[in-house]
Amino acid sequence: MRLRNAAALFAALALAGYLLGVALAVPATAIDIVDFAFQPATASGATGAQVSWTNQGSVAHTVTFDTLSISSGTIAPGKSFSTALAQAGTYTYHCSFHPAMTGTITITDASPTLTPRLWLPLSLYSPA
Q1: In 11-79, which ranges are E strands?
Q2: Contact 45, 84 (CB under 8 A)
Q3: How far, in Å, CA of 85 to CA of 40, rounded?
Q4: Residues ≥6 apart with Cβ < 8 Å to 2
Q5: Rounded to whole angstroms, how far apart are CA atoms 72 and 103?
Q6: Which pLDDT tens digit goes with each residue over 78-104?
Q7: Greatest pairwise CA separation for the chain in angstroms
């Protein structure tokens, strides 16, 4: 009987952990490269989340950050580049092949804010 209760408790905790993880998941940010522009030109994301650029055009481009040492290299048509930015801030980038192509991404802190709550104590009862 105790083994069954332990298994049920384990399953409940695993489900709760999964649901909490899904609730706290940080959504990705998608930016398209269309013709000779980043769309949207101004985007936002959260720390640690993936930011992806997909070349929807017909010529090669790059994503080269102005103040970070991040560069995509050549992104061929139909291909993508992704990175995660770990620090909050506003970052500008450009295409090194076409310097007039510029974009900005603002990264905000993704740390969950916990608010105080009144929680009822949880008691586990196992009949002897």
Answers
A1: 29-34, 37-39, 42-46, 50-55, 64-65
A2: no
A3: 18
A4: 126
A5: 14
A6: 999 999 999 999 999 999 999 999 999
A7: 75
Amino acid at 20: L
The Cα 128–Cα 19 span in angstroms is: 32
The one-letter code for the residue type at 91 is Y
Both structure tokens of 106: 């603002």
Tokens of 73: 């290299």
pLDDT by residue (tens digit) across 31-73?
999 999 999 999 999 999 999 999 999 999 999 999 999 999 9
pLDDT of residue 75: 98
Place of tokens 């993936």: 50
Place of tokens 């990705």: 28
